Amino acid sequence: MSASADLPLLITTGEPAGIGPELTLMLAAQGRLPEQTVAIGDIGMLRKRAATLGLDVALVESSPGQSVRATAGTLPVWPVALRTPAEPGVLDPANAGYVLATLALAVNACQAGQAAAMVTAPLHKGVIIEGGYPGFTGHTEWLRDACGVDDVVMMLATDAALHARAPGWQGSADLRVALVTTHLPLREVADAITFERVTHISRLLAADLTRQFGIAAPRIAVCGLNPHAGENGHLGREEREIITPALDALRAEGMDIQGPLPADTLFTPRHLAGVDAVLAMYHDQGLAVLKYAGFGQAANITLGLPLVRTSVDHGTALDLAGKGVADPGSLGVALALARRLATQRAGAAC
C-alpha cells in the first residue's frame, strides 16, 4: 500500500441511523477534513442528513482512481446505496448489508493501492446480526477475516498518546491500551487467555508499535486477569499458570514487558511512567479507564492488518443522531492518526 499524499483517506460512514454520517458532514462543513478525505456511503442519505442539520456541504460523487479534493464545505463521496431508507435514531436490519458493503469497498481500495488508509465511523453490531450476519462481532474481527490474517490487536489511544513519548515523560492520563481479547462475553474470557494468545498478541503489539508508531524498543505493561493479579494463586491461577510463563518467554526473546500487574493500580502515573502501551486481558478492563481519561478525543487502531485502519472511540449514539449535537472530535483524531500511521508505515517499508 502506498501512502502517497495523493491517495485518499477513506471514511466509512457507518450505521446510517447513527451519528457517523453527521460527524463526517460536520467536519466537512467546518473545513476540518484532510483534503484527501473521501466518504463512503449513500449520497442521498448524506444529503438528507446535511439538510436536516442545516449543514452547507456540497457532496461530490467520485470513484476509486479519481482525484477529488475535500475542501471547506465540499465532501467527495464514493457512493454505496442503502438497502432501505434510513432515519436518524431508527435501526433497520435491512441496511446491515449496506454497512458491510461500505467496509468491503474501503478494504479493497486499500489493498489495491487506491487509498492510503481507512477510518471507520461506528456501526451497530446487534442490527448487523439481526440483518442476517449471525457471526458478526465487530469491525475488528470482520477486518481480520476480510484481510485474511490470523489475528489482530485492538488498541485505543488518547490523543496526546498518539505521538511518541517525549524524553523524560513521567506518565499521565495519556494512554495506549491494547487487548488480549476483544468482543467476548465476560464468562468466556478466562478460557480465551492462553499462553499462545498472550505471546502472539504481545508480539503483534510490539511489532506495530515499532512499524506504525516508530517506537524502536517498546515498553509494554501487562494486566493480570484476576483481582490483585491473582494474589499469588489465591484469587485465580491464570497469572501463575499462563500469563507469567508467557511473559517470561517474551522477556527471554528480548521484549521489554512488565507484569502481570494488578489492573486496579497499573493505571496510575507511577506505574505508567515510561510505558508505551498497556496490554489488558479483556475489553472493559482496559477501555473503561482509557475512555474515562480521554473519551471523545481518542482513536481505535487495528494492529496486525496489511492496511491502516483507525476508528472512533464511541458507538452509534442513536439518541443523538439527527440532532446536530454529537461531538466529531474522535473522528478528527482518527483521521489525523490514519494519515500519520500511513506515512510512518510507508517509511518503515522503504
TrEMBL record:
Protein family according to the UniProt entry: Belongs to the PdxA family.
Phylogenetic classification of the source organism: Bacteria, Pseudomonadati, Pseudomonadota, Gammaproteobacteria, Oceanospirillales
Top enzyme category: oxidoreductase
InterPro entries in the cross-refs: PdxA, PdxA_fam
Identification of the protein by name: 4-hydroxythreonine-4-phosphate dehydrogenase
Gene Ontology terms: biological process: pyridoxal phosphate biosynthetic process; pyridoxine biosynthetic process
Entry's EC annotation: 1.1.1.262
The UniProt record lists the keyword Membrane: no
Catalytic activity: 4-(phosphooxy)-L-threonine + NAD(+) = 3-amino-2-oxopropyl phosphate + CO2 + NADH
Pathway(s) annotated for this protein in UniProt: Cofactor biosynthesis; pyridoxine 5'-phosphate biosynthesis; pyridoxine 5'-phosphate from D-erythrose 4-phosphate: step 4/5
A Pfam family hit: PdxA
Miscellaneous information on this protein: The active site is located at the dimer interface.
UniProt source species: Vreelandella songnenensis
